[in-house]
Amino acid sequence: MTVSKSITIDQLGPELRALARKMPDRVRKGLREGALAVIAQVQKEIATTKPHQPEDTGAYAAAWRKRNTKDGAIVLNSMPQALWIERGRRPGPVSSTHLLDWVRRKRLYLDVLPKVLAEHKAGKIQLERRGKRGSVHRSAVDEACKRVAFLIARKLAKEGYTPRYPLRRALEHSKKPIADAIARAMKEG
Fold first, then answer.
1. What's this model's pTM, rounded to 2 decimal places?
2. pLDDT of 132
3. pLDDT of residue 2
4. Distance CA 116, CA 136 (A)
C-alpha cells in the first residue's frame, strides 16, 4: 500500500514567492565569491603563460581586482599593459623610451654591452665618462639599453604582440568553482 499526498503549486505560492525573492541575492553572492576564484586562477594562468610570462615587477599580477556590480561582479586589471597582455597588439609605432626601464630591469642589454664597450674602445662611438673615477660603464649600459629597446620597438611595430589571454583562460578553468560558489550561496538560509 502506498501513501501519497499531492501538493499543488497554488499551495506553495507564498513559499515559492519568498524563495524567488532570495534567489537573485544568493546568485549575486555566489558570483561575487566566484570572482575571487577567477582572480586566483588568473595568477596560475600568468605563471604558466607560454612563450613568455607577462611578469616584470609583479605589478600586473597584483593589480587584478574584483568589483561588485548590481548583477554580480567584474574581474578587472587597470594596469596599462593588461590590455596588451590579454588581447595582444596590432603592428604599429611604439616608443622605445617606454621600453628602456623594462630592458634595464630584465637585464636584456647584457648581450649587447660587450659590443658597445668594444665599439667605444675602437673609437667608433663616444661614451660619456661618469662617476667618481670617470667610468664609461654607465654610459655603455645606457647605450646598450637604447639599442635593445629600439630593436624591441621595431619588432613590435612590424609584428605586433601576440595575445596571451590569461583572463580568458582563467574564466574557462573557473566555471566549476563559480558554479560551486553559486550552489553554496543557494544552500544558505
1. 0.73
2. 66
3. 55
4. 11
